[in-house]
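testing teh design pipeline on a random one, pls ignore if ur not involved
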């Protein structure tokens, strides 16, 4: 049964807000995972650029006693070389976590705002956003 225009507008705002919050949750989760996994690359490249005489040339003690231009260049190259495998690892961790938490199933279509009685859920009842009393024959991404 179709909803009234005002009810449709209200449900569109609710669904839109929920989808935006889920998008921000996914973005935050991705940011945290990528930051943690890519931390070695960030540190190595940072110290390489900080101690190289052509870039920043820091006056820190470790730059003068341990790292010269050749070792700083080696750190920069090493950081960019190990970045590719770590990006793959970070994406694999994010995808497995998003699938386990079923975050991508929680996005609701805007057609739910137009009609009453439609529920969207996934077959497993343990997810974060499963609606109660939904049709168990409805298939979703698993």
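output:
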């Amino acid at each position: 049964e179709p909803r009234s225009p005002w009810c449709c507008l209200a449900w569109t705002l609710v669904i839109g807000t929920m989808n935006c919050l889920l998008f921000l949750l996914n973005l935050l989760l991705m940011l945290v995972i990528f930051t943690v996994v890519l931390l070695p690359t960030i540190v190595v490249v940072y110290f390489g650029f900080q101690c190289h005489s052509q870039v920043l040339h820091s006056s820190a003690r470790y730059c003068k006693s341990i790292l010269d231009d050749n070792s700083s260049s080696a750190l920069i190259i090493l950081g960019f070389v190990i970045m590719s495998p770590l990006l793959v690892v970070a994406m694999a961790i994010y995808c497995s976590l998003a699938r386990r938490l079923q975050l991508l199933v929680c996005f609701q279509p805007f057609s739910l705002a137009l009609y009453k009685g439609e529920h969207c859920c996934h077959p497993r009842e343990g997810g974060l956003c499963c609606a109660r009393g939904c049709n168990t024959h409805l298939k979703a991404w698993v």
